[in-house]
Amino acid sequence: MGETSGAARPWILLSPALATVAFLLVVPVLFIVVYSFWLRTSAGGEIPGFHLDNWQLVFSDPFYRDILLSTLKIAAITTVLCAVLGYIPAYFIAMSETRHKTLLLLLLILPFWISYIIRTMSWINILGSSGALNTALMGLGITSEPIQMLYNETTVILGLAHFLLPFMVLNVYVSLDAIDRNLLDASRSLGASNLQTFREVTLPLSLPGLAAGGLLCFVLAAGTYITPLVLGGPRDAMFANLVFEAVITQLNWPLGSALSIVLLVVLGSVVMVYNRLAGLGQIAKSFG
Amino acid sequence: MTGWNFIRLYTIAVYLFMFLPVAVVVLLSFNSSQFGSFPMEGLSFRWFIELWNNDAIVRAFRISLLLAALTAIISTVLGILAALALVRYRFPGKNTITTLLIAPILIPEVVLAVALLLFLRWLSLPRSFLVLLLGHVIFTLPFVLLVVQARLVAIKPEYEEAARSLGANPVQTFFAVTLPLLLPAVFAGMLFAFTISFDDITGTMFWKPGGVETVPTQIFAMLRHSISPEINALGTVMIVVTVLLPLIGMAVARRLAATRR
């Protein structure tokens, strides 16, 4: 086996992965940028060139703007909900001194492995017209007819939060676990109450984790189209549903490209802002 | 310590929120009633037997397993090679390359799916198993890379240097020293890629050819009709595959790590 020169070696090792990402990600994304300026003819063909028609439609039709705004709203509510639901369990696991810490940690990671589609559809068993909740309510005589609880914006948010909560808990846990316990002892010995210690020391030090978890929840929530299809009503489409409709149902690929780029730019700017403020390295810590 | 008690109760409530809906799926999958809902009439395995006799579901399972296995192997090989370069060598542009390799998780999966689909279609490569595989490789690669990278950083380069100074070439050093030490992370990365691929629906719905279903898309298609006990049974099987497999894997990895010490 011939010795390759040292300087070339990392590039040889990197080349398969780099080629994969370049050919299957970078080039395709650049391609849809170009593609979004092409035209779709009614006959089903495409006219290459530089046409602004798709972009004009995307920017002038209030339909797209409204759905984009409601998508961002749903993602924001989901993120806040995940933070509210997730912070305290993460704190509990990080700070508890039980022997069962490993088990608690395992339980924390477990939902990652449970299928997204199963967790999403599981809410139909709970909230559906013959689901657990309606059966219980009717059994108790509180209502005689099943209450329609599913297929609205609230159940979409519920399903998203249920899916994304582990991302929040894990990221918050990682930053809480890294806090030097001496700082907390020092704060208490200097006369701070538990609540003051939390507010002045623990919370600020856990903000990077909270931000990383928040970013993941927001971006993943804003890019989903399966949850609204399963748990939402016909009027609860999110922006990614429009992309799916355009590409798969209407086969209007140039329009689908333009819509994809809108989503990419909007969510990309969120990631960019986060990267400037916190750095993407925080998210990688969860994999340690 | 009432504050701590509140925290404990809150944590229990959140865990219930996370696990109760899933537990209900498992419970209902054993319901002998012919509707996939409450009340429970009795325990039976009839829905699992029905799954087994349902050709469409068995086919979806085969496709999912094959796809996930191939994805895991390819992603892990690419991920190990890239991680070696990023951790063990100094070279210009490392940060940019790291960001580039992590990019598939920074880009919304829908956008990735559309871009890959339309680009390959433009190259006259229609939706097929190959497109599905390429798509799964691209978005599992960052996860494998991050897992392997994290482990590789913790392995001292001195071991490899010792092997090199004893006359082993880089390839021999890798197989005799680095890979055995890296094995737990290789396992973890592979399992990670396997489960992500096995569970994926967002990209798969774009890439799958007509008539081909993976388990998640099959469940999605079945949901369109109504929620039948078969779906709950299928869900239970999915949970067993995606939860039990990694747990066994982790146990094996821990064993491996323990015997090396």
Task: Based on the model shown, name its key terms.
heterodimer, A: 288 residues, mainly alpha, MetI-like fold, two-stranded antiparallel sheet, 13 helices, 2 strands, globular, B: 261 residues
Report on the structure:
The complex is a heterodimer of chains A (about 290) and B (about 260). Chain A is an all-alpha fold and about 290 residues long. The mean pLDDT of chain A is about 90. A two-stranded antiparallel sheet of chain A has the order 1-2. In chain A, helix 5 packs across helix 7. Chain A is built from 13 helices and two strands, in the order H-E-E-H-H-H-H-H-H-H-H-H-H-H-H. The longest helix of chain A is centred in the first third of the chain and has 34 residues, at about 60-95. The mean pLDDT of chain B is about 90. Chains A and B meet through helix 1, helix 3, helix 4, helix 5 and helix 7 of A and helix 1, helix 3, helix 4, helix 5 and helix 6 of B.
Please give the structural blueprint:
The complex is a heterodimer of chains A (288) and B (261).
Chain A: H1 9-35, E1 39-40, E2 46-47, H2 53-60, H3 62-95, H4 101-113, H5 116-127, H6 132-139, H7 153-177, H8 181-189, H9 194-222, H10 226-231, H11 239-249, H12 253-277, H13 281-284
Antiparallel strand pairs in A: 1-2
Chain B: H1 2-29, H2 46-53, H3 55-88, H4 94-106, H5 109-122, H6 129-154, H7 157-165, H8 170-199, H9 204-207, H10 215-225, H11 229-260
Helix pairs in contact in B: 1-11, 2-11, 3-6, 3-8, 4-6, 6-8, 7-8, 8-11, 10-11
What value does the Rg of chain B take, in angstroms? Answer: 22 Å
Our measurement of the CA-to-CA distance between the termini of chain B, rounded to an integer number of angstroms, reads: 42 Å
Topology of chain A as a string of helices (H) and strands (E): HEEHHHHHHHHHHHH
Strand order of the largest sheet of chain A: 1-2
Helical residues, percent of chain B = over 70%
Structural class of chain B: mainly alpha
Silhouette of chain B = globular
Q: What is the β-strand count of chain A?
A: 2
